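Treating backbone geometry as a discrete language has practical consequences that deserve illustration. The amino acid sequence and the backbone structure tokens for this protein are reproduced below.
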Amino acid sequence: MSTTACDDQFNDPPIETSEAEARPYVPGPVQEFIEAAGGKVIDGGVLPDGSGFAVASMPLPKDHWLTQPGFNTPPMPMRMGAGAERERLAEMLRAAGRYAVRCATMNGQDEDFDPDALVQNLVVGALGYWTDDGLSGDSWANPDPVPPLFCPGAHLAAAAVAAAPLAGSPQRRGE
């Protein structure tokens, strides 16, 4: 038998519980399903309304991208050279990465987190929500202040305009 303390504010005496009662309650078929998939039950129980819950840790599939062998070459889909624009985007991505890690780990509380959730949260942190304007319909879920829309390729267009000779200039006339 083990003893668990009750709510101290009412000065209730400790309640005697058996070891079986101290384990999370998860119905047998659910427990079997989780274990058959290679998982482990972390917590479970019955809620006051009669419904139940289970929290489980599941292993990654054997072919998951995280565990693939090989040299980790960066994909560089937004490749650019050094400069002010790179510094600006790098800081944005760092902020998105911090957001992604916080979300995927419940602000550092969960050490057993889903790497796919981390990547998805990185995308949302960098590009916004999957909506027409990148903002959530819930204002509390949007940054304050709301940043302007990022225009992909704007830095390239600006550089092209700056490098193009002006109409009527000697370079434009071929002189």
Q: What stands out?
A: The helical segments are 19-22, 28-36, 84-104, 115-127, 154-163, 170-173. Residues 84-104 form the longest helix (21 residues). Residues 15-57 form one domain. The two ends are 97 Å apart (CA to CA).
